Amino acid sequence: MTSFAPDSIVLNRKLPLWYQVSQSLRASILGRAPRDPLRLPTEEQLAGHYGVSVLTMRQALKELEVEGLITRHRRRGTFIEPSARRGAPVRLLGSVDAIVAQQSGMTTELLDQGKAPVSGELAEFFPDVAEVATYHRLRSDETTGEPTNHARNYLRQELADRIDREDLIRWPMTKVLRDVLGVGISRITDTVEATLADPETARLLQVPLLSPILRYTGVIHGTDGQALDVAVIHYRGDRFSFTVTLDAH
Description:
The protein is α+β, with helices and mostly antiparallel strands. The chain has two domains: 17-80, Arc Repressor Mutant, subunit A; 90-244, 3-Layer(aba) Sandwich (Chorismate lyase). 27% of the residues lie in helices and 32% in strands. The chain has eight helices and ten strands. It has helices at 17-30, 43-50, 54-66, 96-102, 157-160, 165-170, 173-180, 199-205, and strands at 70-73, 77-80, 90-92, 106-117, 131-141, 147-155, 185-196, 212-222, 227-236, 242-244. β5 and β6 (147-155) form a beta hairpin. α2 crosses α3 (54-66). The longest helix is centred in the N-terminal third of the chain and has 14 residues, at 17-30. It is elongated. The model has no long low-confidence stretch (mean pLDDT 84).
């Protein structure tokens, strides 16, 4: 039987080797093609592939076994769980409706709300105000209850004064602004980057510290061009991917 072939990585000696190997192997498992074999190479082969000791490799595999991504059988080998797969991708298709639809199938908990001074990176978007309203929400899969992302929204106060708390639990901010408040939206600027889970994100999303995370920044602009809302969302890297579709015509 052919074994699954994991991707290669360059290890950082400042982080635990077993952790880096487990993260790389996790990404390979979750990103595998449907027809890829389920059997992993032996511990010795994997250790050689990553350039680590068998003991380190064993610790990395143990982590994946605890997560339910693999099963280990004496004399038979180590196998990927067929149910281990990446979650539904976040698709940025160029429409507000696509962004709103992406949040369907999730439950939302409003963790806190308040106010924050406009400083640092926010100053670029709100150069005309000193303070903005803030909302912090945690979204979870409606079926499994597993946390998928946590979002911080920074909103002009005059808009926040019109928002009902229950609407923020029921809908994404984009829908609240456009469909509930009737605010005109001219465009949304999206930025996606890879980062590592800080202590807060690791706790909220129930992932290991420094595990791969997708950081999404979305800026909603009104019809006058001003930024109305800035959303900073941290997605679990093992549950989401981003796809951008460009029309070539």
